[in-house]
Write a structure and sequence with these properties.
This protein has about 425 residues and is α/β, with parallel strands linked by helices. The protein is built from 13 helices and 16 strands. Strands 2, 3, 4, 5, 6, 7, 9, 13 and 14 form a nine-stranded mixed sheet that branches. About 5% of the residues have low confidence. Bound molecules: 2-acetamido-2-deoxy-beta-D-glucopyranose (4 copies). The site of one 2-acetamido-2-deoxy-beta-D-glucopyranose has 3 residues, from loops.
Length: about 425
């Protein structure tokens, strides 16, 4: 510009300047318009659909693919609305100035939102879930306060490396016994590759299944007998149904905090899976070692480990005939990444953080998804491990012990199959 002014008259320069600036402005505007027009939101590929839905169901087409936490208020989905009300309460930016305004009791808020929805339009078990979803506290009917303080084998160790918490139902005596006799053996367990193992404790998580909760035979005395013999039953006073399974996670976390706060790792699984506990211990102890090495460079003591068969970009199941069915009037959006089916393992310290954050997340009727939601709120994602086989091995491989070499968990096995497989794996051929 200085050069221009030197060569030409000052006047010419002053006249040209506005034109040049307008020109630049026009170019800028055109480029902006072009960029805006050519922008397309990133496409999310769906590679998994929650179990039970056929991949070509037309029911999938109608709802938006927003990220899970981007809850839209205009969505009339009940869960989204309830969660949004809590977010508003718990987030000082969204809340604005509400000093002096007391928090509405959970039940009251729920009633208000439920009034705008017709509860009878939901399937029956969904209705039952909604009516009790404000309640998260249920008393223990059978407790094991000494579970993590016993050192029955005189080893002096009292804090388990691994606490196995297995979701069971009152009537599943056979599953529990098969687990006790095989992979869920409580006591000192050796690692697989003759590495050091550790103390494993097993508890079974039960709700109520008796005449007060449906047409169930009264198995109370049998259960009491079982508990006297094995002392590994935790039972809470709520109806044991599929949509109430999330309660078992919440109540387990409470129990852990009170009675087993020093467990290093927690396995949570179903009573129809087979776990290779020794291999799992090897894996967990390696993880722990890595963490201690890494911890040396930081001051972080918490270990964020959450491992399972991770499912990403899953859509809710919209097929009314399946047990995973979630109507659009209840929940809209994608599911967060979650570890599905059979079992997951996480660190003890993470259990406490999950417990804390769960107080900010509305109960969701599918337990695996709920854990995913809580993890997301903590800013964590579940880690995938290919050894967790939710969908089992190919049929032809199931009888071959070598096929289980790198398996940590496999779903699903009957009590009989557990016993057979256990025996086979005790003497895994060297050539595997
Ligand atoms: C589409 O759905 C039908 C039944 O609902 C099923 O038989 C068929 O295999 C499905 N096709 C694909 C590609 O999933
Ligand atoms: C919040 O509201 C109360 C009364 O409702 C008022 O006295 C107070 O000054 C307000 N605080 C702020 C930060 O605006
Ligand atoms: C869950 O348990 C509570 C307490 O027993 C019960 O009121 C509710 O109906 C149960 N929910 C489902 C879906 O079974
Ligand atoms: C760790 O904490 C100690 C004191 O608690 C402090 O002196 C040290 O600088 C911290 N180290 C790092 C890497 O933050």
């Amino acid at each position: 510009m200085g050069k221009c002014c030197k060569c030409n008259s000052r006047l010419l320069c002053m006249c040209l300047l506005p034109f040049m600036m307008t020109g630049h402005l026009l170019i800028y505007i055109m480029v902006s318009i072009f960029v805006t027009m050519s922008y397309a939101p990133p496409k999310i590929t769906i590679h998994y659909i929650a179990p039970g839905i056929s991949a070509n169901s037309s029911a999938l087409a109608s709802h938006p693919l927003g990220p899970f936490w981007n809850l839209q208020l205009e969505d009339r989905a009940m869960w989204n609305q309830l969660q949004h009300a809590w977010d508003r309460e718990n987030n000082p930016i969204l809340r604005g100035n509400t000093t002096g305004i007391s928090r509405k009791p959970r039940a009251q808020l729920l009633t208000e939102i439920a009034r705008t929805h017709d509860l009878n339009s939901f399937p029956e078990h969904m209705g039952a879930f909604i009516r009790s979803m404000h309640c998260r506290e249920y008393p223990l009917l059978i407790n094991q306060p000494e579970m993590c303080r016993r050192s029955s084998d005189g080893s002096g160790v009292d804090s388990p490396v691994l606490l196995m918490a297995i979701k069971s139902q009152v009537g599943n005596f056979e599953n529990r016994q098969a687990i006790r006799e095989t992979w869920g053996h409580s006591g000192m367990v050796e690692g697989n590759s003759n590495k050091k193992g550790g103390l494993v404790r097993t508890v079974f998580l039960l709700g109520r299944q008796d005449s007060s909760t449906g047409p169930h035979p009264d198995l109370k005395n049998l259960l009491e007998l079982e508990n006297q013999k094995y002392g590994d039953i935790l039972q809470w006073d709520f109806r044991d149904s599929f949509f109430n399974l999330t309660l078992k996670d919440l109540l387990l976390w409470q129990w852990l905090q009170l009675y087993c706060p020093t467990a290093t790792f927690v396995f949570k699984g179903d009573d129809d899976v087979f776990v290779r506990t020794d291999v799992l211990l090897d894996y967990l102890l390696t993880k722990k070692k890595e963490h201690i090495l890494w911890k040396g460079n930081t001051n972080k003591t918490d270990m964020d480990l959450f491992v399972g068969d991770v499912i990403s970009n899953a859509m809710p199941n919209r097929e009314p005939s399946t047990k995973y069915y979630i109507p659009e009037s209840f929940y809209k959006g994608m599911y967060p990444p979650y570890a599905g089916g059979g079992g997951v393992v996480y660190s003890g310290s993470l259990a406490f953080r999950l417990k804390e954050v769960s107080e900010l997340v509305r109960l969701f009727p599918i337990d695996d998804v709920y854990l995913g939601m809580c993890l997301q709120r903590l800013g964590l994602s579940p880690s995938h491990h290919p050894g967790f086989l939710t969908f089992d091995l190919p049929v032809t491989d199931r009888g071959n012990p070598c096929a289980y070499k790198s398996v940590l968990l496999v779903h699903r096995r009957s009590p009989k199959e557990m016993l057979t497989l256990w025996k086979q794996l005790q003497s895994m051929p060297d050539q595997c």
